[in-house]
Design a protein that fits this description.
single chain; alpha/beta; 4-stranded antiparallel beta sheet; 18 strands; 39% helix; globular
């Protein structure tokens, strides 16, 4: 639609944002205006009304590379040049416009006829129905903190010179993998140090850490504790909200008739708030440990007090929901939202979604530590994501900062672990198509097989395990 409205415009698809997709449109340096949005929307509506077939053309990787160079997409060409020359790839065509999307597309342009297009910052937002709102556009919310985190990613790409997957693959082939790992981990460590400095300088009493599944909350919380301890000489008191589950027999029942272990009602809020109030007042408390085997809280194992200037660090999926800490003044809280925000694009039009980045992490961790195969992880994933949309994402905008737990190299390393797990899923499985979708985009990532350069305290170690 942009190419139809502005022949020489260049589009770059950014990360998911504000329950939609953020994109930059370069109009040869001209200022992007609201009237330009209207022109693009009109083109999109005409494309939808025509309901034109999306034609899939198969060709060799070598021919695809030639095509992308001729069309002014060098990063796509370089990615294809890294594949075997005779490997078959697919190019999608719609109204004489061609692109490669690394996944199966809908048959024609009329399938999605409901969308919202609006200006945002220096670009635009495309918002569509989703799994929870499949017949409506979800209510708009401004994820301004996420936007700032993505802006940090863009600055990092300029700093490292790695903007697209082809850049990263080139560095791996040159033997620079260890340097990439060290640089990526250093940048992440520096950001955690800055957060700890803000907590100490702001005299914050409570640090609250939340994020979706497989974002690296546990490791991040421990590293934040270490940094605060280094600055103050006193280790923070670390709490996980999972120890405050209600007795399993008292668990609330969800809409599906099964116990709901995701909603905030599954936590003993009365006990939690009372103990937080007592701790901050200097009183002794008996912090429970939840026995997941028997479904009950166990007391008497962790009787403690909070020192006068000791910081309390709380980690859990509901930590940013003020209902959890309603008795603690806002000025005393420092809220951190954590998520792996993928730092590079496959090319200018394709990114690994944050959800896929987390899915790969969870798949590897489930296999390494929980005995689950990839089929089981994929089966559970939709329910996990549905819970996140209700319990986590709506509160991300209340965070003081967003921490990007992703590293530039991690998908290349996770591929080594995840690829055989996905390939083991049989064609007869309901999860086969999803496994093939992931394998399709992952094949363009050069593997990083050695984990030796990954530090012992790296967030990725939470998923791939310790050094052997």
């Amino acid at each position: 639609a942009v190419k139809s409205a502005f022949e020489h415009a260049d589009v770059t698809i950014g990360n998911s944002l504000n329950q939609g997709y953020y994109a930059y449109v370069n109009l040869d340096g001209a200022q992007f205006t609201t009237s330009d949005i209207h022109k693009i929307r009109d083109k999109m509506e005409k494309i939808i009304a025509h309901d034109t077939d999306i034609v899939m053309e198969k060709c060799s990787a070598a021919k695809a590379a030639e095509k992308w160079r001729s069309l002014g997409n060098p990063e796509k060409a370089r990615l294809m040049e890294g594949r075997p020359a005779d490997e078959e790839v697919e190019i999608a065509e719609l109204h004489n416009y061609r692109n490669c999307m690394y996944c199966k597309l809908l048959p024609s342009s009329g399938y999605i006829n409901l969308f919202d297009l609006r200006p945002y910052r220096n670009g635009l937002l495309l918002r569509l129905p989703n799994a929870l709102h499949n017949h409506t556009i979800p209510k708009y919310r401004d994820d301004d903190k996420l936007y700032e985190a993505y802006a940090d990613c863009r600055r990092m790409r300029k700093y490292t010179g790695i903007s697209y997957l082809a850049d990263l693959n080139d560095e791996i082939r040159k033997g620079n993998t260890d340097e990439i790992i060290r640089a990526s981990e250093w940048l992440q460590s520096r950001q955690l140090e800055e957060f700890a400095e803000k907590v100490v300088e702001g005299h914050k009493k409570v640090v609250l850490i939340a994020g979706p599944s497989s974002s690296g909350k546990t490791t991040t919380a421990k590293r934040i504790c270490a940094e605060i301890g280094r600055l103050t000489g006193q280790d923070p008191l670390y709490l996980g909200t999972d120890d405050y589950f209600v007795e399993r027999k008292d668990s609330p029942i969800g809409p599906d008739g099964k116990p709901d272990f995701e909603g905030i009602a599954c936590l003993d809020l009365k006990l939690f708030n009372q103990q937080m109030e007592d701790l901050l007042a200097g009183r002794e408390v008996d912090i429970p440990e939840f026995d997941f085997l028997n479904g009950t809280k166990v007391f008497g194992k962790r009787i403690t007090t909070l020192g006068k200037n000791q910081v309390l660090v709380i980690e859990g999926i509901h930590s940013l929901n003020d209902v959890l800490t309603e008795n603690i003044p806002r000025k005393d809280k420092y809220k951190i939202y954590i998520s792996p925000l993928t730092q590079i694009g496959i090319d200018r039009h394709n990114r690994i979604s944050t959800a896929d980045a987390r899915l790969l992490r969870r798949m590897v961790r489930d296999n390494q530590f929980r005995g689950y195969n990839a089929e089981r992880t994929l089966e559970m994933w939709p329910k996990v994501r549905a819970g996140e949309s209700v319990n986590i994402f709506p509160y991300s905008s209340s965070a003081d900062v967003v921490f990007n737990s992703s590293t530039v190299y991690e998908t290349n390393m996770l591929k080594t672990f995840a690829e055989p797990l996905l390939e083991a899923i049989p064609e007869s499985s309901p999860q086969y198509d999803e496994a093939q979708r992931i394998l399709t985009f992952m094949k363009f990532f050069d593997k990083i097989e050695s984990t030796d350069a990954v530090p012992d305290n790296a967030i990725l170690r939470e998923f791939i395990g310790p050094r052997k």
